[in-house]
Fold each of these.
Amino acid sequence: MQTEYDVNVLITSMANDLLEKLKSLPKQELYMVGIHTGGVWVAQRLHQLLQLELPLASLDISFYRDDFSRIGINPQIKPSKLSVSVDNKHIILVDDILHTGRTIRAAMNEIFDYGRPASILLSVLGERQGRELPIQADIVGTHIDLTHNQHVKLTNPDHLTLQISEI
Amino acid sequence: MIQKNIQLDNQGRLKHLLTLEGLTRQMIIDILDAAESFTSVAGQAVKKVPLLRGKTIVNLFFEDSTRTLTTFELAAKRLSADVLKINVRTSATSKGESLLDMLRNLEAMHCDMFVVRHAESGAAHFIASHVAPHISVINAGDGRHAHPTQALLDMFTIRKHKGEFAPLTVAIVGDIMHSRVARSQIHALTTLGVSEVRVVAPNSLIPTAVNTLGVHVYHDLSEGLHNADVVIMLRLQKERMQGANLPSEHEYFQRYGLIPEKMALAKPNAIVMHPGPINRGVEMSSEVADGPQSVILEQVSNGIAVRMAVMSLVLGRPLEGTMT
């Protein structure tokens, strides 16, 4: 039996947790950054729910991956868009699934090439076991129990769905 | 005769970039798309990504160059590669060392890529066919043959301004005969499927077999510019001209120099390009070179992103048999 996740409910609860966590910070310093591709979809909804003032930023971490020499680059990389300076901002970094932590490491490296944020908070829709780096999320939509030969992916931007498949 | 397929590996991926001849439309589009994503690096506070960290790139320039050498060097540095420049005129080859000996020595220093500029057509191809298998070669201009990265950055610039290639009429004006840039541009434009490529020049500056490349020849500038979407001016290659192909620079400017009155014959939103360096008052007047339709300096900026894309696509081929 496969668990069905209601992604909209998860995102709403993430938004509530974020509101609680961010309440002492000035709104004009809250800068949400989504990681391509699934992280941007989640971030778009969170950005709307939280009614943030600064525009949503997006990161494509392809140039910061640690496995370039093994897998090369995909020409369909999206340019990163950070229209506002990250200097002294409280960054809310959003991704769909936290697994090994390598994507988050790459994302933080890239953010620091844009400037020096005041803080970074990690917010993920789902987290699964398998961390290879000392990286944990501050806000988690749900924990997903998977065996090592299962894979989870966020699909369909119009109707977000967490899809679990066998490798 | 130059083989086309030496630049592809046995899985059909780009290993060297020697010429655009023989590349598919999709391969060219992939390079332009990758270049698009590298444009954001110039907007970072730290203008660098770690993609080619630990790779060593050698700029091997047998012929003078400022713009191409500088933008290749900047592109490599923005990818975090280590770059060294060998000015071959002052190196050991002038002490009698053969080119192949020099290549062997550079290979022994564990270099990963050679960027080659040479006055002889086919030089980059020669080097690519003699280097160790793990080394990639990028042609940064060889004789009259090809200058693929220049043509790619021109295509990138055209796409930025015009979007689609199919409806475009592109006029290439000037010294087609001696221009490797023109040859590569013609290959790129026809592969990308533009509606019409025109070459505009006096008879003495048009190579005889140019029709086989699928272009239309014009000898009159006004006719050649009529309704064009893109006007590419070429430099008079004085150093490559043997004998008197031209009466005088002054007369050339009278007949083929781009001045505002001539530019008005192209479409109102047409763009003007030039690979540089410009001979002001010979190919074009300053009013046009510095005017609102000129995208000449954008070409230079775009050159960095395009060269970053080429270097990372070529060096970023997954090893054969590697799991992803």
Amino acid sequence: MRKRYGEARGWIGAMETEQKKCDSGDLPSLRRIVCEQGLLSRPDGSASWMQGDTSVLAGVYGPSEVKVSKEIYDKATLEVMLRPKVGLPGVYERSREQMIKKTCEAVVLGTLHPRSSITIVLQVITDAGSLLASCLNAACMGLMDAGLPMGSLFCGVTCALDADGNFTLDPTAKQEKEAQTVLTFAIDSIEKKVLMSSMKGTCSVEQLQQCVAASQRAADTIFQFYRDSACRKYSKW
Amino acid sequence: MKETPLSNCEKRFLLKAIEERKRLDGRECYDYRNLRISFGSDYGCCIVELGKTRILGQVSCELVTPKPNRATEGILFFNLELSPMASPAFEPGRQPELLVKLNRLLERCLRNSKCIDTESLCVVAGEKVWQIRVDLHVLNHNGNLIDAASIAAIVALCHFRRPDVSVQGEEVTLYTPEERDPVPLSIHHMPICVSFAFFQQGTFLLVDPSEQEERVMDGLLVIAMNKHREICTIQSSGGIMLLKDQVLRCSKITGVKVAEITALIQKALENDQKVRKEGGKCGFAESVPNQRITAFKIEQAPVDTKDVQEQAEEIIAKAFPPSEVMATPVLWTSGTAQIGEGLENSWGDFEGSEREEEEDEIAQDEPITVEDQNLETGDASVRTRNQKDETIVLSDSEEEDVVILEPEVTNKNRTETSPKQDTISKKTGGKKKKKRATK
């Protein structure tokens, strides 16, 4: 049994900055977010998303030519590839790929580009907690940079529940390890509905609903970030 | 996705420009592109940017048993990946010729030049040594991958720290970074590759070819050298004839370039070390240029979650009460249990077997758990054929083979057909019919 994929594949000397609770009345907070778009020259869209020390790079190709075997006659074929930092992609990556793929399929208007392919390649650069949420955010920023039509935007938020039932937003790797339950939600920008959810551990219905509600609040912050960064990007046009 | 081919006029234009000693990006013939090195928050993690070519390097280590013929030497392992992110032509799960070539060259440059002291990686001779693994991911391919890869590999190795170990008798103790400071690898020298592209059968020479230049070049010469001007590897490909003078001139240029690059690497490493020592901020987030309009950053943002609990309670109050959950599995009959909700299970319902005969046509979708299904379905279909020949007609599929194999045995064994068996037979029969219909 593998514990966490990072550990099984050898030791990476890690330095992690602690997530501090915000001074103002001990509210849970999101770590610092940094995003750069269009940093790669080859892909049609690219984004590097950093959330605290966690960092993910996304490259998006599409709409482009599709292999005949993968062609879908009435919509675009969406592919997601998640590449770990050390070693080859395994079961862990494959399951994450599926989750991200289903989320993207829910928002990308694939019917506008039938018989073409959209490929999203995600490269993990640093894993310091909330990796799936960061992957989702990077994928969305990449899709935005590639200029693909989407019904709405989406973002990923991770919540960690400790044994006392208190939740932390955007946990670090250490917090994730200590937590009883780690929940990740993908939330859309229009109705703030949950597009995808992933849960590790157990929790009660009340706790689940609390986490959903908290994630929806956190999503507002992330969507505001998307908006501001798009405003900045097109400010000189 | 296929690579977009370079058109003939583009090729001619490039070659013509090279003849006039001009390059598309405005460089001189012997100019190297800008080199930028940034470090991640982990040890042994770096991104090297050579112009627009970008490579991510990560070093990790593991304690393994050494190879029997080299009992006192640690293991060095290189893995260069051509990620589909780098170019649409790179497909996942395939090993193109280029990848094999690059990996081989990288191994020759870094392992065979013995730049890392592998003996210092030995913990217990013949039992435990460190395996150092270097993963390189090409993030963007814009030419000259080998130079960028060799720089990324050596920078990542220089930056890496492995956990400290101590040996007391037979016992090996591994210390966490909190207990003891991790130790750097002992590196003798830093070999760096420099590529030269030749055009017109070696008439024209360019240092650090870009992706487009690589596509029109006739031949490539790669020289790996360290700052002491010792050649570690030399490789010529493309099948061009080179004169002795040309090779000597190339090695002289390599010497100059390697000295420049080594100085840059050393400076980058020192800067990072200083920042870490002072406890300042390190990581890729720090190296994102702030003034770029494509980059945006926000500081730690608090999220107002005060009334989350009320909201959650409200949702739960509005929602339908959850249906009763069966906590313990219900044992219907030996070998058949049910947990949770679902359709009413009529397995083991001995009296209801008559009713089921009519129902089984409808209830085809109910899952059947039979231990040795092969045997059961085999004899089941025989008996159903005997009873209701008009409803079930076996097709010439492979199911019939099972029937022919052991009809006597099964019939003898199961002369007294219990109602349960009958139910199964009906159900499987129904399932088969469905299968045939879908064929």
